[in-house]
Amino acid sequence: MTLFTATPEDGAVWITGASAGIGKAVAEKMAHEGFTVYASARSENDLVQMSNEFQGKGKIIPLPLDVTDREASLACVDKIISESGSLAIAILNAGTFKPQRAYDLKFEDFEFTLGVNVDGVLNGLLPSIEAMKRAKKGQIAIVSSVAGYGGLPKNGAYGLSKAGLINLAESLKFDLDKMNIKMQIITPGFIDTPLTKKNDFPMPFLMNVDDAADRVVSGLKNQAFEITFPRRFTFMLKFINHFGYGLYFKIVRKITGG
Q: What does the alpha-carbon distance between residue 186 and residue 174 come to, in Å, rounded to a whole number?
């Protein structure tokens, strides 16, 4: 089955978490390809600066948003459709990471992480699907992480949220395929962004954010369900998950320093 792949003529792109990191780089690359990109994040000043500095075929429109605000997320989708006519691609990228250790767990850290990484995705996902159902076409890409493949040190809440997103995307794909809505999951390894700067352990195959954004933009044009990079690292994690927990914990301890 060949699913819908958007062009700039099909409508606008909406990217959450677009003020920094992968979100910002993808927003700029999509706009350079001619798309009208609605860029959402909490920092309005950063979005306005990005929009003002952009020079290319398309354009970047600031759309400030706290993804944990459900009504505001609904309003963003309505605004995109009213202004551009159609939402062709939704890239639900906003996320947060707070390191955790088992000897100092706090309920509020889990609530905060899941609120942004899971509820924040759902708040954008459901209205996007409704809009695309009406249009009878669309693309949705949810940004997860290799942390969703298996447990990593200090990733209790983060890994929980990212594993849930992978399962969510897998589950919805069966029905969305029938609606001509292409669902994809993006699972980056370690990318040089403000979030990964919080890590105090070795990060194998750390990837430049522009290279990561190139992989995302290229992947959106393909039919593959998963967009993952850098493959040397992500495929290695997939591989070791097939050999039992004894080997898994041994290798992950070694590559991350435990």
A: 17
Q: Which of 227, 226, 252 is nearest to 239 (CA)?
A: 252
Give the CA distances from residue 245 to residues 134, 151, 234, 238, 240, in Å, rounded to whole numbers and listed in that order: 45, 10, 17, 13, 9
Q: Which residue out of 38, 103, 149, 158 is catalytically annotated? A: 158
Q: What is the 3-state secondary structure (H, E, C) of the chain?
A: CCCCCCCHHHCEEEEECCCCHHHHHHHHHHHHCCCEEEEECCCHHHHHHHHHHCCCCCEEEECCCCCCCHHHHHHHHHHHHHHHCCEEEEEECCCCCCCCCHHHCCHHHHHHHHHHHHHHHHHHHHHHHHHHHHHCCEEEEEECCHHHCCCCCCCHHHHHHHHHHHHHHHHHHHHHHHCCEEEEEEEECCECCCCHHHCCCCCCCCECHHHHHHHHHHHHCCCCCEEEECHHHHHHHHHHCCCHHHHHHHHHHHHHCC
Q: What is the pLDDT of residues 64-94, one digit of tens each?
A: 999 999 999 999 999 999 999 999 999 999 9
Query: What is the value of pTM for the model shown?
Result: 0.94
pLDDT digits (tens, 9 = 90+) for 159-192: 999 999 999 999 999 999 999 999 999 999 878 7
**Residue 158 annotated to the active site:** yes
